[in-house]
Amino acid sequence: MALEIYKKVFPKEHCWDKHKEIQPSLVILYFGGNDSQDSDFPNSSNVPLDEYVENMRKIALHIKGLSEKTHLIMLSAPAVNEELILKFYGDNRGRSNEVGRKYAEAGVKLGQELGVPVVNFFEALYEKPGVFWDGMHLTAEGSKILFEKIQKVIKEADWEPTLDWDKMPTEYADIGTDMHLEKLMKETTHIGTDMQLEKLMKDTEDKTIGITDSDSQEPKPHEIILDA
Question: What residue spans carry the Basic and acidic residues bias annotation (predicted)?
Answer without folding.
Answer: 217-228
